Amino acid sequence: MTGTSDLSSPPVIVLDNLVKFFGRFAAIRGISASFAPGRLYVVLGDNGAGKSTLLRMVAGLMEPSQGNFTLLGTRDHREVAHRVGYMGHAPLLYDELSGMENLRYFAGLYGLDDDAVCRKAMQMVGLDPELSRRIGQYSQGMRQRLSLARAMFHDPDLILLDEPFSNVDVHSAREMAAVLGRVRDKGKTVFVVTHQAALMEGVADEFVHMAAGQIVAREEAVRNAAIPNAEWTPR
Amino acid sequence: MTTIGVTRTTLLKDLRMEWRSKDAINSMLFFALLVVVIFSFAFNPTAEESRRIAGGLIWVAFLFAAVVALNQTWARELRNQVLDAYRVSPAPPNALFLAKAIGNFFFVVVLEALMAPLFVVFYDLRSVGPVWQLIVVALLGTWALVVNGTFFAALSIRTRSREIMLPLILFPISIPALLAMVDATTSILTGEASPDFWIKMLAVYDVVFTAVCLLLFESVLNAE
Q1: Confidence (pTM)
Q2: Buried-most residue among A32, A105, B38, B46 (CB within 10 A)?
Q3: What ipTM was predicted for this assembly?
């Protein structure tokens, strides 16, 4: 096994009897779990299992109805917001701006004024920083990759990705999975909510199975010794 | 990630996007222009009558036009759920509010600057009182409209019929400010009374509502 995962380190996320209601419907039903740092977790489950809700709560976009959780050693999400990257179901990008303009704006929110950070992030996902097209004219796959770059440009310790492979062709999805593997190998913790478990085989450390708002199984994964190291060709 | 730094970054981003699309400014201009023309056909006042009614006409036109822009304030943040990207960032919530309010203030002031000559021509307006006071009233009054408008537009973004909701919430709360704007403007145009009281009232209104909006905005931003 490669990478820097260390099960003896303090957990990066601790969930304590987490419950989330939407009206009378319980989307999350009393989840208690902890997750070690430096690992790549793949969260699986049918539609409505509570995967995205759990991710949104951990990202600080939703308050739990009951229970609480600790993120990177604190319960104050704002305290560690700069150490967390989140990629949502939607791209979370402005259609009217170019890729670099989008990243420059979000870099400003994180106090990063260095253009090189944005360029590196775009290159990491195989996009050309010189592309002046507004992202409203990007293909779905390109948007998805830029969205991944937006979630990771500030080098976060914890990366939360909700369906990163949706609308992405298989080749690009495999490249994305390889990028995530390399990020994990640098000691980052990655959570990937997906329906495409096969893409993460050989890269993931653990599969977390959810059903009806609960974690029903956690299964250690078998990792390939070497993650493909090929760089994306900028488009 | 200072509030001023993020406000500046967000404001520049909004101005750039508006410069490219011209959504807010075009719709505001067109709307205000229609109001001026329709009112000028509906009434045919003498110069003296114009001075008495112009305060009301001008501010009603600007209020309605501003609502058109205010309704679009948060639309870009909702598209692609970009607001979530701001919420997960360490940027201060108030910086977003300030950037939106300042951006709206800028758009409405531009509208007022473009429409003012038309009002003068269509209603044959001549100010008896000092013109600089009109500028003070315009700036204070515009801030009163946009600070509340930006806040209530944020409050109504998650409602189904937000275009209807905004005027329903905004207009009643703007009545004291609107009263002050209209009376101050009429006082200056006719020169019959001092606008000082109304200007002071507008200033107090601006300070109070800006403070309240800043205090409450984080809760509005994170409301589910």
Answers
A1: 0.90
A2: A105
A3: 0.89
